[in-house]
Fold this sequence. Notes:
Elements: H1 19-37, H2 48-64
Amino acid sequence: MSAGTKHRTHGTVQTRLPWWGLVLPAVAFVTLFLLLSSPASAESGATAGATGSLARVVQFVQHTLGG
């Protein structure tokens, strides 16, 4: 073994995830979820906005997955 090499155990993979690799997707998910569940929507009715937006997303996912 030469002086500059590091000792590695075979069969294991070690990776370090930067802080933003976890925080940014979490922030994006929360932001999109809040936008979908927001009652202030362009649709008519106070609860129709949140229900309509969420229903459209659910229908899109079901259509995409073949359901």
